[in-house]
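Reading group handout, session on sequence-to-structure problems. Before we discuss, look at one worked example. The prompt was deliberately terse, the way you'd type it at a terminal:

> structure Cell division protein DivIB

The input record follows.
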Amino acid sequence: MPKTRLPLLKEDKHVKKMSRKITVILLLLFFALLAVIFFRSSVSRITEINIQGNKYATREELLAQSGLVVGGQFFAASANSVQEALKELKTVREATVEKDFPGVVNITVTEFPAVAYELDQQGTLEAILSSGAAVKVNETGIAVEKPILTNWQADDPFKAKLCQALAEIPNELTSDISEIVPSPTLSFPDRIKLYTRSHFEVITAISLLKDKVEYLNQVIETEQPGLIKMLEADTYVPFIAENEDKEVTQE
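And the output record:
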């Protein structure tokens, strides 16, 4: 008896396509549901924020600037965006943000150094950073080798330049300077007067200070107290000679 072949049933392509669409939609809904559950759970929240390296900026200031809060979304802000936000503070030179899942954020800041001190209008001592920022020093301590800025206006552009210049000079070359006062002239609008702990009076310009400070220290180490001018030319006149002339005149 001859064998007969049954005709093959044609696969319904439309049904197959619909089945794939339904499968994809279900998978998307499933992952969306998982995402909603995850982001509403405590696992996706910030549980701890650690800050170190700050001396002048308070924890509250840094947190407010970063936008981070305990209980906030761990993935809401990238580490880079938080770092850039912190660097907008005039006290912060560099910032590093590391996220440790789940929930821990570690912030390390490097602040601008203090280069001088100043009394504000209320008579409170402030540290002047190399960025030009003024911060209270009640709880941060005082570095006695830093100079005091006197008679400077807060908006004086040369004040910021002075702070930058002081930051570029090694501490051992400025440790004898006790006070810096503005003394502008037409020829030198950035001219300043320095007073040293070793009783020298110094006239120079902010733009020349970095290059002239070594000469200043050479005179201080080898000569008697006197007047030092460090402008286009360097000169030194001892105070003793002036006193002796006065005594001779009186006699």
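Points for discussion. First: The chain has seven helices and twelve strands. Second: The chain has a mean pLDDT of 84.
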